[in-house]
Specification:
With 251 residues, the protein is of the alpha+beta class. It has helices at 2-24, 168-181, 202-214, and strands at residues 35-39, 44-46, 55-58, 64-67, 75-80, 83-88, 92-93, 98-102, 106-110, 118-122, 129-132, 148-153, 156-161, 165-166, 187-190, 194-199, 218-219, 231-239, 242-250. A five-stranded mixed β-sheet has the order 15-16-19-18-17, covered by helices on one side. It has a three-stranded antiparallel β-sheet with strand order 4-1-7, with no helix packed on it. A three-stranded antiparallel β-sheet has the order 11-8-14, with no helix packed on it. Helix 2 packs antiparallel against helix 3 (202-214). The radius of gyration is 27 Å and the shape is flat.
């Protein structure tokens, strides 16, 4: 009788041990997959997975974020700095992205970088939005009108001269913002291809820089030749008690 009880007890103990080993084995636990996205202009982090909840912070265009949320979800849970919340999936891309706009309803482009085949893109309307995943740079590497911009049109890749596109809709946003924050003796020069803003307050200059990066602008070194579209330079000058905070932009 005692032998039977001992045998049953051992069997039960072995069964428990087996179950514990199987369930506690890390190899049997599915690891969460970390995915990387880049935000669109106007992407907010919300307190909850609902855009009607509190907006915690406004992100830069092409702000890199990571998440373990399923790709099919409407919102992704992210942490940027010390802020944790949710962003709309529709406000993300899988690559850094910049937008350019057509001057006319027909835009010339090449089907390859060697320029062997030239085509007309029937983009239907002026200001048609072209997509590019190429980071804007200074004249040191990208000559305005002499290098080719890689763009996507109707899910196909083309190469076009950047003189055939504009970012006027983007420019209008930062020009309007400058008027909003301008104060005292701040001044501006707004031209056909580049703009300059000089602030007498570092705080206002930083506000402008934040705005520029929220709409896709990229900072280049101050000793660079003035860059292509979506680039800006920043420089501080001090003359006695006078302080100038200068931002130069290309568009």
């Amino acid at each position: 009788m005692n032998k039977k009880i001992i045998s049953v007890s051992l069997a039960i103990l072995m069964g428990v041990t087996t179950v514990f080993t199987a369930t506690s084995n890390p190899l049997n636990v599915e690891a969460a997959t970390m995915k990387t996205y880049y935000t669109e202009s106007g992407a907010y982090i919300y307190k909850s997975a609902n855009k009607k909840t509190k907006k915690l912070t406004l992100l830069k265009q092409n702000q890199k974020v990571t998440t373990t949320t399923k790709a099919s979800s409407k919102y992704y849970k992210v942490k940027v700095g010390s802020t944790t919340g949710y962003i709309l999936k529709s406000k993300t891309n899988t690559k850094p992205t910049w937008y350019y706009y057509a001057y006319s309803d027909r835009s010339g482009a090449y089907t390859n970088r060697k320029k062997t085949t030239y085509v007309q893109l029937d983009n239907k309307k002026r200001n048609y939005k072209f997509v590019s995943h190429t980071k804007p740079t200074g004249y040191d590497t990208t000559l305005n009108g002499e290098d080719l911009l890689k763009i996507s049109f109707n899910n196909k890749t083309y190469y076009m001269y950047d003189i055939n596109v504009t970012i006027k809709p983007i420019v209008s946003k930062y020009r309007a913002y400058h008027k909003k924050i301008k104060a005292g003796q701040d001044y501006e020069y707004e031209g056909g291809y580049n703009d300059m803003y000089v602030y007498h307050s570092k705080a206002r200059a930083k506000k402008m820089i934040t705005k520029l990066e929220q709409i896709g602008y990229v900072r280049i070194p101050k000793d660079s030749l003035m860059g292509g579209m979506y680039t800006y330079k920043y420089e501080e000058s001090h003359y006695g008690s006078s302080h100038d905070y200068e931002i130069r932009l290309n568009h």
